[in-house]
Specification:
The chain is of the alpha/beta class. It contains ten helices and 15 strands. Strand 5, helix 3 and strand 6 form a beta-alpha-beta unit. The two termini are 25 Å apart.
Length: 338
């Protein structure tokens, strides 16, 4: 009897094994000074990474994380069916230029800070559908490139409000395969665009929280689960402000999350000792926390079943200048390792 892959309105059940066989993470100095330092593969002290601009540095981080994930399992580019990647910069230039130096058929993705989980979903669909055996994926962000594009020139030293988040400098990569030993992606929930009229580019957490709540509630309803069904519910980068908003929004919908809920944006930094205000954000935030810290805990069997959800603010400098609101998106995957 064929198993139904579509579950409810927005969710997917993967029938074939989708195994995470390798991962890699490259981060900057601020991230390397945080509590997860020993879970990253490469801490780069020079924010220029030996390049002439921050944008080129971010591109290099993405390229190096992807190549490192392959080296860990002794695979070459010719062994990979597709490369999926994305970032925050205009026309995803970090991913596009990184792919220029990686000889693998390429899909460029943009989901803002949700891109890493979006890539996990698309890669899993490709493998489960029989279109690929191995898919490499990555996403990146850089504090200084994001500030320059979305807010103010970094050199200006503009004071940020407490709701602001610190864009993570880093890139995370995963290799997904149809067989092997490792944690498995077993389900996914594709998010809808949710716009509650937020316009403050310094409060991404509040702008993205409604999308996170919508995807989580739909996931629970589609799959017949609840917050207690998972050892860990992990959001990508809501930060302290967005996390509090999500908890309240879920309570209004009849769901209560407890100590099994964490946020990558709050895990990656020491909010007491590091001046990052509400926490971390960026395409690299969920990517490096999951690729290092979370996968290690899965291998150590601290967690056996997690619900990993990344959120994105689908804005651009042009939309902000035209006074547009900030739409949010959130995608989720279930990762299990028994």
């Amino acid at each position: 009897m064929e198993i139904e892959k579509k579950v409810g309105q927005q969710s997917i059940r993967f029938v074939k094994p989708i195994v995470i066989t390798s991962s890699a993470s490259v981060v900057g100095s601020t991230e390397g000074a945080g509590p997860l330092a020993d879970t990253f593969d490469w801490i780069v002290e020079d924010l220029l990474f030996g390049e002439q601009s921050w944008e080129k540095a971010e591109c290099k981080m993405l390229r190096e994380s992807a190549k490192l994930a392959l080296r860990k399992v002794n695979l070459q580019e010719k062994d990979i069916d597709y490369f999926l990647a994305g970032d925050l910069l205009n026309q995803i230039i970090s991913a596009n230029y990184a792919a220029r130096g990686i000889a693998i058929p390429f899909f460029g993705l943009f989901g803002a800070c949700s891109t890493f989980v979006e890539a996990m979903l698309v890669a899993s669909i490709l493998i489960d559908g029989g279109f690929a055996r191995r898919v490499l994926l990555a996403s990146s962000s850089h504090h200084n490139t994001a500030e320059r594009q979305y807010r103010f020139p970094t050199e200006q030293g503009v004071q940020r409000p407490p709701s602001a988040q610190w864009t993570v400098t880093g890139s995370g990569a995963l290799l997904l395969e149809e067989s092997g030993n490792g944690p498995r992606v077993t389900m996914g929930t594709v998010g809808k665009v949710i716009d509650m009229g937020m316009t403050d580019a310094n409060d991404m957490g509040s702008a993205m929280a409604p999308a996170a709540a919508d995807t989580l509630v739909n996931h629970f309803q589609d799959t017949g689960t609840n917050p207690g069904s998972y050892d860990l519910i992990l959001t990508g980068d809501l930060g302290a402000v967005g996390k509090a908003a999500l908890i309240k929004l879920l309570q209004q919908r009849g769901y209560r999350v407890g100590e099994n809920y964490h946020d990558c944006g709050m895990l990656i930094y020491d909010l007491e000792k590091q001046d990052v205000h509400s926490g971390g954000s960026g395409c690299g935030c969920a990517a490096v926390v999951f690729s290092g810290h979370i996968l290690r805990q899965l291998w150590e069997k601290k967690y056996r079943k997690i619900l990993f959800l990344a959120t994105g603010a689908l804005m651009s400098p042009t939309s902000a200048q035209q006074g547009e609101t900030i739409p949010g998106i959130a995608h989720a995957v279930v990762v299990e390792f028994n």
